[in-house]
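Journal club side-thread
Mid-discussion, someone asked how the predicted structure for our own chain would compare to the paper's figures. Pasting it here so we can look after the session.
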Amino acid sequence: MGERYLPAPPPRGARVWSAVLTVPALLGVIITGWLLLTPRHVAYHLSPDSLHLEAVVGGIDLGRVVPRADLGEARDVTLRRGPRYAGTGLPDLCEGLWDHAPVGEVIEASTCGSEAVIIPRRGDRPLLITPDDRDRFLADLASGASGDYPAAPGEGTRMWVLVVCWIAVLFGGAITALLILSPRRLFFEIADGALIIHTLWGRRSLPLAGARIEARPTGGLWLRVFGIGLPGHQLGHYRVAGRSMELYLSNREAAVLFVPAQGRPALISPDRRPAFLAALAAQGVAVDPDLSR
């Protein structure tokens, strides 16, 4: 095993910006997965004074309690479901502000079915619910009776929608985890007549025979063709100032260009750069004298 060189420390603030980019994505994956997995429950409760719309997700009741005196004459309705403006839209749980034909904007707490009950409300948008026994609910609401009313079973979500959601969650989680782990697995090794670049994705071995070290390119565009482009961690295939090369960078200011006798150059940023360049020179690699100063 040869001598190992870690990547140069990233510029100040790079880790913060990297976290700004990756942490929200990770939180989004976690929250989406939790919403898909967590139990959901919708029910309605009439008391002498109020109507409680119960819409529970993971033990959190997103519903509301409405004074019975504010409720108008309810009726059943068949909907053409429309968009959600605010609230929650999960399989078999729709809560918040929605807009459906032919009723318009409503405050909804339902299992997302098309057969519903709409209840006018004084001074606010009407309520939309989906009790399992609509006739019983309408009769009890009109007569002033109390009772508990489970929601109608949801009409279900097409299997392909759930499959796509789960693929997105799993793929997003894997990519986010790899973005977090990738910078920790990058290092450089000089061994067996080669520069070996270790990454989370594998390793690349570049023969030292006939190779040279040049200064990093300056000016021009840096275009990522494939790979990772985070602050303080650029890895993959890039075009830099019109040249095709592989990047294994943590800090551009510390970068040098390793040009093998054959194949694509590698732009790298090893820590302890003077020692790294001296080790390459000792192996016969032509090093730009200006880089050793």
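Post-session note: The first strand starts at residue 3 and ends at 5.
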